[in-house]
Amino acid sequence: MNRLPIRGRPAGRLAAVLAAGALVAGTVLVTTSSAWADTLLTDTFEDGDANGWSRSGGSWSVVTDGSLAFRQSGTSSDARVLTGQSSWTDYGVQARVKPTAFATSARHVGVVARAQSSSSYYALVATASGGVQLVKRAGGDPVVLGSATAGVTVGSWATLRLEAVGSSLRGYVNGALLVQATDAAFAAGRAGLATSYASATFDDVEVATATGAPPTGTPTGGPTPTLPPTEPPIDPGAPPIGFASVNALGQNGTTGGAGGPTVTVDTASELLTAIATPGPLTVKVSGMIALPGPMHDVTSDKTIIGVGANSGITGGGFNIGLPVSNVTTPPANAVHNVIIRNLNFRNTVDDAINVQMFSHHVWIDHNDLSNGYDGLIDIKRGSSYVTVSWNHTHHHTKNMLLGHDDNNGAQDTGHLRVTYHHNWYDRTPQRNPRVRFGDPVHVFNNYFVYNTDVGVACQLNSGCVVEGNHFEDVEVPWSISYSGSRGRLVARDNVLSGTSEPGDSGGTVTEPRTFYPYQLTDPASVKSVVMAGAGTGKINF
After folding, report:
1. Alpha-carbon distances of 193 from 55, 201, 489, 493, rounded to whole Å
2. Residue 434 and residue 438: Cα distance in Å, rounded?
3. Active-site position among 13, 431, 434, 488
4. Of residues 263, 315, 262, 261, the one with CA closest to residue 288
5. Mean pLDDT on 411-426
6. Other CB atoms closer than 10 Å to residue 486's CB: what's the count?
7. Is the N end or the C end of the chain the one with fewer CB atoms within 10 Å?
8. Which alpha helices (DSSP H) does 145-267 contain, by range?
């Protein structure tokens, strides 16, 4: 578990990572206040255990369900797990919850706040009928304080959030306030998860003192962003920088739909038809389009670009790649030459953007991504020559994955060459990115703020160059020993503010300049430059 005690000092595995780290030459340490303490606790179960949770009843275990998650599999009793401190007072507890079975129609699963014990607490629960209830339990049967229709179904994920502030109780489902009540029985207590004669899977647990409806703009918690008065000039016609610009695999740089026609789409059917059309095509997305989940295939030679600052997709995501197979040789028909720019991605039921199966020459630029189910931008299974630039990611835990599995070295070794530059990793706890096998991976001029797990995690013999970034109140800015398997990492000319130690690094990595030229933004200016330029609405077409 990633615990954040008072004043943000890390504990457990991450404390060991920090202790192993040494200051890296070229790193700038900026003395500021300690890490912010709005987040009391997060647990994504990616370390493979549930240490720190006290169990009462049921059969609890960490399992794989898309990613690692915490499951209670029994339906013959009440089951609780609690964590945190009995002194916690005003806070919200949030988790993704997937009910898997109910013994009877009167049973439920959910999240717990202000627990005095395993039988005294408040809870927000999803019921077998698809509703949601605020309940109080004081040693006996639950007492319903409020209820609403929520549409939570067996086998589907929903985000439940229970806030206890003074005597006010508020219950949110997928960000919407559905039920409220007032009760003063319990003033403080631990957080937890609960099932009542039901089974469920839980993931991405967060307990935070910041309360109120989950915002849709800039997140709260951590340093207060201050936008500079002007933004840097960005040429929308300029080609990509980084690996997407390299002449390799029969493709000279990334041009997307250049040379083909342009279509504007504003419905799901129009968009899906356009991205499946063979040949070069520029697809302009007008407005927010709701797509069915999970992901939809994008064919080669496409530019998909949003019109204005408020266009994009919700619900579904984009898959850039052939169907998954065990081949280890890049196929001749691998998807290639795809550009995705200036789009908002919201509430995707799987990955927002998934690049896989030896796809190459992909440019993901100036997008705003949040509130997804799994990864926001995942790159895996032998894909390469990708640039991820000027994106704003927020309100999401498992941010960007590069290399999906510890056992996929046969496909990934020699591939996964990716550049990440000028991205705003805005309170995204982990995977910023998390790297397996990629070599080299270039992470430069990004702004990391209040990442409560790890910034750049370089594992499994991957090689990362981390340079010219600004890390502000990041628990572990970079590491080569995250989850035990070591990579190689060179860190230079990074700014650290609110962080006394960067993490561990070491080994040699091929210089990115071997592949492409680039010019660094002054690290002292990275925060203002990235905040002004990342996300949608910054480039006009």
Report:
1. 10, 10, 38, 43
2. 10
3. 431
4. 315
5. 97
6. 17
7. C
8. none
Task: Give the count of alpha carbons within 13 A of 451, CB side only.
Answer: 35
| pLDDT tens sequence across 398-414 | 899 999 889 999 999 99
What are the pLDDT digits (tens) for 198-244? 999 999 898 987 555 444 444 445 555 544 434 445 777 899 999 99
Determine the pLDDT at residue 156: 85
Whole-angstrom distance, CA of residue 76 vs CA of residue 64: 23
CA distance 80 to 77: 10
Record: fold of 39-208: Jelly Rolls (2.60.120)
Q: What is the CA radius of gyration of the chain?
A: 23
Contact status, residue 188 vs residue 123, Cβ threshold 8 Å: no
> Helices in 388-429 by DSSP H: which ranges?
409-412
Catalytic status, residue 341:
no
Name the residue among 235, 256, 232, 260 with its Cα closest to residue 245: 256
Q: H or E element: which one contains 269?
A: helix 268-276
Q: Which two tokens stand for residue 264?
A: 């504007």
Q: Report which residue type is found at 501.
A: E
Nearest to 388 by CA among 414, 353, 364, 422: 364
Euclidean distance between CA atoms 123 and 518, whole angstroms: 52
Tokens representing 529 are: 């430059």
How do the domains of the chain map onto residue ranges? 39-208
| Strand-pair category, 495-497 with 470-472 | parallel
In angstroms, the CA 57 to CA 53 distance is 13
Which residues, 6 or more positions from 532, have their beta carbon under 8 angstroms from its beta carbon? Answer: 227, 228, 230, 231, 232, 538
Residue 302 β-bridge partners? 281, 338
The first and second tokens of residue 148, run together, are: 């609403």
Task: State pLDDT tens for residues 28-85.
Answer: 544 333 333 367 888 888 778 899 999 999 999 999 876 788 999 999 999 999 999 9
- Of 365, 422, 425, 361, nearest to 393 (Cα)? 425
Tokens of residue 43, six digits: 């647990």
